[in-house]
Design goal:
The protein is of the alpha/beta class. It has two domains: about 1-190 and about 280-295, Rossmann fold, CATH 3.40.50.300; about 195-280, Rossmann fold. The chain is built from nine helices and 13 strands. The strands form two sheets. The chain has an eight-stranded mixed sheet, sandwiched between helices. Strand 6, helix 5 and strand 7 (about 185-190) form a beta-alpha-beta unit. Helix 3 crosses helix 8. The chain is globular and about 55 Å long. The N and C termini lie far apart (about 40 Å).
């Protein structure tokens, strides 16, 4: 079944190759190859800031998840908190969405766009999480690859994220696998964390509804906290009052991601501390090449 899924994904990519619709301004797509979190949101924020610094007007195009309601679109809410002045249009037809603001922007940033093949893109940046790079090597139902690894051949630029959380040998192996499928430049990046409180030596509960919860646990531990309990929800989970009460009941400080905070903060009972860990993109190897990519746009 996984092989059939992969064949279908390859056929779909070929079908759209000559049928993708173009927007009247350049499109920078940010995406990944696996289901789960690779750091697309911080990269989108970083890219928009870099393009604005170069004097360009930017708009972000995201799919959005209508079934989840406005509070379920956590990634969009995080982006809007960081970039309140940038137009952010949500909709499944991102060509139509882009046309609504095309007269007022110079560059479109396509969020989670690597598989959104109906829209032509000028630059395809693909993020690969070094801690869980290839989704078990299979497409669903056997693994978490959205497409076979050969799809990396479409990439303009590859960024290995969370590169600081693996050893050099592991990172080299991931890089060699990526290089076997693309000639695109490869950069490495980390997400240095910060928190609204000093967690050193504290016993905490970690709670999150993200694609890679294990990586978040490691991030919290890197801040000196001792993770006593953990509660993981499905990605894009819409928190309820009951969820907040359950998390607060043991009495431990609860540590969450910024993506969870945009939904959970308003529901928090208040008796137990709720701490938010925020991350920013830090490009390491390949920073000059990525800057050249933004200049090219």
């Amino acid at each position: 079944m996984a092989a059939l899924y992969g064949l279908g994904a390859r056929w779909r990519a070929r079908w759209w190759r000559r049928r993708a619709r173009r927007l009247p301004k350049p499109v920078l797509s940010v995406g990944n190859l696996t289901f789960g979190g690779t750091g697309k949101t911080p990269f989108v924020i970083h890219a928009c800031q870099e393009l604005e610094r170069r004097g360009r007007r930017v708009a972000i195009l995201s799919r959005g998840y209508r079934a989840l309601g406005p509070e379920g679109n956590d990634e969009a809410l995080v982006i809007d908190r960081h970039l309140p002045s940038i137009p952010h249009v949500l909709g499944p037809d991102r060509h139509a969405a882009g046309l609504t603001v095309a007269d007022d922007v110079d560059i479109f940033v396509l969020d989670d766009g690597f598989q959104h093949l109906p829209l032509w893109r000028d630059i395809d940046v693909v993020l690969v999480d070094a801690t869980a790079p290839f989704g078990g090597g299979w497409c669903p139902p056997a693994g978490r690859l959205r497409e076979p690894l050969t799809a990396l051949g479409r990439a303009t630029f590859v960024v290995l994220t969370r590169a600081d959380l693996v050893d050099r040998e592991t990172l080299g192996a991931v890089m060699r696998t990526v290089r076997a499928h693309t000639a695109a430049p490869i950069a490495t990046a980390a997400f240095p964390p910060s928190c609204d409180a000093d967690l050193s030596g504290k016993e905490v509960c970690v709670a999150c509804a993200i694609g890679n919860p294990a990586a978040f646990v490691r991030t919290v531990e890197s801040l000196g906290a001792r993770v006593v309990t953990r509660r993981f929800f499905r990605d894009h989970h819409a928190y309820t009052d009951g969820d907040a009460a359950e998390l607060a009941r043991p009495g431990l400080p609860v540590v969450i991601t910024e993506k969870d905070a945009v939904k959970l903060e308003a529901l928090w009972p208040g008796a137990v501390p709720l701490h938010v860990v925020r991350i920013a993109l830090e490009v390491r190897d390949g920073a000059a090449e990525l800057d050249a990519l933004f200049d090219r746009l």
